[in-house]
Structure formats: C-alpha cells, structure tokens
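Protocol step 4 of 6: structure prediction from sequence.
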Amino acid sequence: MNVIILGPAGCGKSLLTGRFGDYLQRLGYSVKFLNLDSGCLSLPYRCDFDIREKFTVEEIMREEGLGPSGAIVRAMERLSEAKIPNYVGDFVLVDTPGQLEVFAFHKSGPKIVDQFSNLVGVFILDASIGVRDLPAAYLYSLATGYRLGIDTINIINKIDMLEDREVERIRDYLVNPTILKEEIRTKGVLSDIYLPVSELLQRVVPAQRNPCVSARSGEGFSDLLDMLHEVRCACGDMT
C-alpha cells in the first residue's frame, strides 16, 4: 500500500513518517520510505528514495537565480517530471514537501500523485491549533483530498502537547461538531457561508474516524493502522 503523508508546514509529516514506519517494521511489515521534499535539511528516517539526490531547493535558487518561493514552485515542476521508482512493500510511506499549498494546488501535484497506484492519503491536523480552529483545518483536508483525487484519512497529531481536557474537547468535537456552533461568531460575507459549511462538517466529521495520535510517542498508531487496513477493504468504508 502506498501511503502519502499530507499536511501544512510544521504539522509533523516527516516525524510521523519515520516513527510510524518504525512502528510498522516492529510489527513485521516491510516498509519503504520516500522523501519528496527537496527543501528539507534532515530527516528522521533512512530514505529508499530521496528527491534531494536529484535536486534541492537551494541548488535551484543558486542555479536559476530564484528566491525561496520561486525555487519551491520550480522544484515542484521538476518533481512532476522526475521518475519515482515503484517500490514493492507492505507499506510505502511517501513524505511530501512542507509547503502543502504548492504540492496540492499547483498543477504539478496531481501529476506526481498519479505516479502511485493503490494510494491512500493521511492528512495531519495539528492539535496545537486548538479545537476552535479544527473546522478550518478539516476543510483544508477535504479540499486537498478533492484536488489530488485520493481517499484521505484525517488524523489529529501532537496530542502529547495538550492537556487531557484539551484532548477530550477535540475528541468531543470529532464526535459532535455542533459543540462549536454557539462559540464561533462570524460577520459579513462569512456569516452567509458559515451555516452551509457548518452543516457540511456536521455530516462529514462524525462519519469518519479521526485517530488522535502523537508522532513523537507513538500513541494512536494502532488506530491509524486499523484505518489504513479498513480504507482498502472491499467496501472502501472509512467510517
């Protein structure tokens, strides 16, 4: 199974890739690690494929006289043109660039994703943003899955950074998104779109299990593994 790790900058993609891969290996699974982030300096896992061996953002900046943003976009274009090997293993974990918006919404993103078969996305929601901002993060994950055209599991990472009461409040929201209905006040145009968006999340969020995990401690990895098995069951049901 190819598993692509998605999420905004700083959410813990690389750490989750490394630690979850270690967890799978301890259970006896064969695991391959692919790094598609040409801008990272170090990784917490040993790569089977590392795009930095072909080019880096720093090299592109120097060679083409581009600034950081332009070099990141150019790196995406080069990545879409690169041949990514087809690895055989129980799990192939694909670590993506830190700048999710470039990977997911640039024209190169879908071309890169299309190189993988039997692909499942794991979208990381950062628990440290707080429960009040989870709806916006969840919408981001829905937009990313839609744009890339892949089945996506949402997980809540960094629960080790929160107090127990904060974690429980997040779990409560995932079961019943209406708990924030009275807390979030909007004005102007936002007030017109909040109601339909809120109703959408009230249907979608409880319909899918959203494991709470800690990439640092490994808490919740068994739930994530169960979800990956279930998403590829005959019915394709992720509830």
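Step 5 (inspection) to follow. The radius of gyration is 18 Å.
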